[in-house]
């Protein structure tokens, strides 16, 4: 009996996840060529055979999110009926925005529209049609799709955790399908292990991109040579900062950093609008927005025959967002207790999507207006493209410096959120995981970021994110079935309770009249 109790206390999710990620880190550092070859082979298999899973899956999440906004389930509260939001709308928005996008906004804000501008599909490079295409594609990649994906899993986690008192684990979402025994058994443990591994690789990819851009900015603005040693130093310093922040608690660390992020991002955005071509920004927003909305479904399902373009863009982004779903959704769920489903979906999906669209319009226009020749030259080195754009505008150097500061704070807050969530995942959903676990995962994800940079930089980062996200792409769409089943059961139970109450009241009235 004692042996059985002891066995049940073994934290298989923590142990297996740590072993799995450690093997990947060690392999990538010791044998980067072998690691890159294996990653490339798995990447080709997924791109050639399963791209459709990413495209259909992400569209399904958007459709389901829209359905929930207008459905009868919208008034259900993510918590008990008496619960109310813990954070103000501004703090809530800044935290979910920082966790959900962060580094990617600064990394891709100018470079992605410029790349589409000089290599559009179906139009002449550098033409007005190419500008519209550039905006449309940026909106597709950073608009409703990623935020809808975050909102669905975040909603499910908040619902089961705060309304049904289930542990804060991805496996808890599947209680209506698997039942208690299934969630606690091998299937549930496997889901949680995949969630941990996907989270570590997703955040490591983001940290790798952030490190490349910070190092690129230091070289471009301050002439500090961009070497792998500098990149490792940046990761080491950031690791110390986000570990200190993570161990200081949600209110002190993550909330403070998130508010700083929002303030710096707003400063850069407003500054870019003031120094940039405002009429062109409005024109691009209008043309790109119309193309985005009118071709939303067809673009969501687009797969080019060669699959070269979608592997570089669409599937890469879908995989990146899916890789971020476990940690972003659990974090969003944690800060959203007490909100209704409708309020949650609108807040998590529509508001940040609109902010991202404005962001890419502004920074994309800054770069595109400098011409196709400039765009081609600037995008040859992805991590320095933003700083090259700023150098052509008044006060651009100031914005470059602030952008690097923002990259650092986004870097720390994203990793901070991830270490907190990884601690939860590997502590059976404990809302207050131990500092020891957070420190361990902070070191592991930093190690993986370094390993990926050593194994080939941005290309390896892209390949690994697509490969690691594949199992979770299937898991997140199955969650839709579980959510619907749970919500239907709740409404059915509420209607039965209401009917029983009305029947009791009716009987009391009849008895009262007879008396």
UniProtKB/TrEMBL annotation:
Keyword field contains Manganese: no
InterPro entries assigned: BCCT_transptr (IPR000060)
One Pfam assignment: BCCT
Transmembrane segments: 12-31, 51-70, 90-111, 139-160, 193-216, 228-245, 257-276, 315-333, 345-368, 398-427, 439-458, 464-487
Membrane topology of the entry: Multi-pass membrane protein
Subcellular location(s) per record: Cell membrane
Keywords: Cell membrane, Membrane, Transmembrane, Transmembrane helix, Transport
Main location as per UniProt: membrane
Keyword check for tRNA processing: no
Family, as annotated: Belongs to the BCCT transporter (TC 2.A.15) family.
Record protein name field: BCCT family transporter
